[in-house]
Each structure stands twice: as C-alpha cells, then as structure tokens.
C-alpha cells in the first residue's frame, strides 16, 4: 500500500480567466473591404452587373404558377412570370436586381414539391 501512495502525481494548477477580454461566443464577424482599382473608381456591387431576371429549372410537373409566384414575391415585387410546364422551367423578372440575387441565393438547389430546383440569374 505504501508503494501506491508514492506514485501519485502532484496536483495541477489551473488558471480561470474571466472578464471582458474573452471574445463573444459564436463565429467571428466578417470584415469587408473595398478595393479601389488603379483608376481610382470603386467597383459596383456584384448584383448590379447581373440582370434582373431569374431562370428556374427542374420544376415538378405538379408545381403551379401560383406557387412559383408566391415564392418569387416572398423576396420582392416581380415584373413578369413565364412558366413552361412541358419543359419544367420558369422565368421571372424582378424590378430590382438585388431581389433576383437574393432569390437565387435563397432557393437554388432547394426542394419544391419533391423536386430540386436550380435557380440562375439571367
């Protein structure tokens, strides 16, 4: 028994840091920077170079024009909506190019009526 008591390791010291020095939990904030080309002009935001239209491919045959319109209007006002049920695709135009970009980010590769749709900017 005496042999077992001699083999114990010394106690470990631990330091606990509390206060405002620790970063908040969660992901770090994303820092953005603006790159000014040698000409001195700032670049336009990404969505301003894109069109205001979106193409939706791979629709289910059971997806109605009303359902597609509701999805599109959940992002912003639309100018037009053309649906081709035989080719399982639709094309829509937004009044604002930013809305088209947001729709593509939100609904690309999402499942709608048991079909994965592909959304691209036109």
UniProtKB/TrEMBL annotation:
Coiled coil: none
SUPFAM superfamilies given in the database record: RNA-binding domain, RBD
Chain positions covered by the region annotation Disordered: 1-32
One GO MF term attached to the UniProt entry: nucleic acid binding
Domain of life where this protein originates: Eukaryota
Name this protein carries in UniProt: RRM domain-containing protein
């Amino acid at each position: 028994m005496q042999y077992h008591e001699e083999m114990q390791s010394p106690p470990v010291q631990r330091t606990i840091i509390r206060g405002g020095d620790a970063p908040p939990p969660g992901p770090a904030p994303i820092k953005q920077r603006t790159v000014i080309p040698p000409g001195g002009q700032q670049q336009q935001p990404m969505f301003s170079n894109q069109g205001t239209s979106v193409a939706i491919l791979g629709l289910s045959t059971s997806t109605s024009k009303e359902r597609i319109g509701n999805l599109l209007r959940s992002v912003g006002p639309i100018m037009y909506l053309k649906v081709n049920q035989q080719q399982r695709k639709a094309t829509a135009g937004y009044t604002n190019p930013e809305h088209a970009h947001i729709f593509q980010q939100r609904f690309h590769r999402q499942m709608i009526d048991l079909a994965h749709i592909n959304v691209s900017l036109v």
